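Researcher: Structure for this, please.
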Amino acid sequence: MTKNGKAEEKKKINIALQGGGSHGAFSWGVLDRLLEDGRLEISAVSGTSAGAMNAVALADGFVRGGVEGAR
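Model: Predicted structure, token format:
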């Protein structure tokens, strides 16, 4: 709830994840923090190489267990 008593709407975002080993590891940490924060709603995700692997893991987690499953 916000100060004026109205429910706060989550901002919807689309994410493109880059490839590369260390970039993939860093990106997963960023995704985890975004999911933990709860102010954003991930509407779409795409990626290449390591980013594609992260995108698949994220999407599968959402399907299986929502935000907590995605983390």
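Researcher: Any notable elements?
Model: The helical segments are 21-37, 50-70. The mean pLDDT is 88.
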